[in-house]
């Protein structure tokens, strides 16, 4: 009789352990099936990302924002699997970075362009630029070449069409107004306005200096084939380029609601490219 009771107790304990094990497995399965996207950005989380988190949550997807303080780590972290997607760079930077570091990453969507602009305290339009005018441009390689293309787009100079890579001052083949183009540190371009007729200012620096690029520039960089390399992108691992969760993120980002947020908070320093 005692052996029978002992057997019943042992059987009950075995059944309880099995049930608990099953419950534990069920929780793990639920956690494994949770949809989480880790998005890498530089700087703090801003309103468009907070809005995107809310919209993705309604689709059953958790968006985690991972903020980086430099422009190197986001791509390396993506390649190493620490994040699933990033959004901080333009095509030109991305293409060079993955070539230099031999990374298998792919651009899967576009975000914004941060346009360069021509600003002036002395003229109101390109047509007013005078003979021999001084023009300040950023001296770093990318923005210098981009600035020269902008001057060509504005009709002020002509560049060698056969130049490979980013143009330099030596690639100017026509300068009908004999413009004096001066290279300076990008951060000083707003302060140069007192001394030059035109200054090319990066959009972020322009806003920090109190300008609204879409309203205050004499000439603003257009979105065309020349500026394609400077459009910012979403990047992912190539193996994940067709992931349905990432596609849902892009779909919800490319909406009029996100466009309105960007236009409102960045005041023309970022222009949505959709």
Short overview:
The protein has 274 residues and is of the alpha/beta class. 38% of the residues lie in helices and 23% in strands. It folds into 2 domains: 34-114 and 229-272, D-Maltodextrin-Binding Protein, domain 2 (3-Layer(aba) Sandwich), CATH 3.40.190; 117-221, 3-Layer(aba) Sandwich (D-Maltodextrin-Binding Protein, domain 2), CATH 3.40.190.
Describe what this molecule looks like in 3D:
With 274 residues, the protein is α/β, with parallel strands linked by helices. It has 2 domains: 34-114 and 229-272, Periplasmic binding protein-like II (D-Maltodextrin-Binding Protein, domain 2, 3-Layer(aba) Sandwich), CATH 3.40.190.10; 117-221, D-Maltodextrin-Binding Protein, domain 2, CATH 3.40.190.10. Helices cover 38% and strands 23% of the residues. The strands form 3 sheets. The protein has a 6-stranded mixed β-sheet with strand order 2-1-3-12-4-13, with helices on both faces. A 5-stranded mixed β-sheet has the order 9-6-10-5-11. A two-stranded antiparallel sheet has the order 7-8. β1, α2 and β2 (61-68) form a beta-alpha-beta unit. α2 (47-57) packs antiparallel against α9 (256-266). It is elongated, with a radius of gyration of 27 Å. 33% of the residues are buried.
């Amino acid at each position: 009789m005692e052996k029978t009771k002992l057997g019943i107790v042992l059987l009950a304990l075995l059944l309880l352990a099995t049930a608990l094990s099953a419950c534990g497995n069920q929780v793990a399965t639920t956690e494994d099936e949770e949809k989480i996207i880790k998005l890498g950005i530089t700087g703090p989380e801003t309103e468009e990302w907070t809005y995107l988190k809310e919209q993705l949550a309604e689709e059953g997807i958790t968006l985690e924002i991972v903020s980086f303080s430099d422009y190197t780590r986001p791509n390396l972290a993506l390649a190493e699997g620490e994040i699933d997607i990033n959004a901080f760079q333009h095509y030109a930077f991305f293409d060079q970075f993955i070539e230099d570091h031999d990374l298998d990453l792919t651009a899967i969507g576009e975000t914004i362009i941060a346009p360069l602009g021509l600003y002036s305290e002395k003229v109101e339009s390109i047509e007013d630029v005078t003979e021999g005018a001084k023009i300040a441009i950023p001296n770093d390689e990318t923005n210098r070449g981009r600035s020269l293309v902008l001057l060509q787009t504005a009709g002020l100079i002509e560049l060698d069409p056969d130049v490979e890579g980013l143009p330099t001052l030596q690639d100017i083949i026509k300068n009908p107004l004999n413009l004096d183009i001066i290279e300076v540190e990008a951060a000083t371009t707003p302060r140069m306005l007192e001394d030059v007729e035109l200054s090319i200012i990066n959009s972020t620096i322009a806003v920090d200096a109190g300008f609204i690029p879409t309203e205050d520039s004499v000439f603003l960089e257009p979105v065309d084939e020349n500026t394609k390399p400077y459009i910012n992108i979403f990047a992912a691992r190539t193996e994940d380029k067709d992931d349905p969760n990432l596609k849902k993120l892009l779909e919800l980002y490319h909406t009029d609601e996100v466009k309105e947020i960007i236009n409102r908070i960045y005041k023309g320093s970022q222009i949505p490219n959709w």
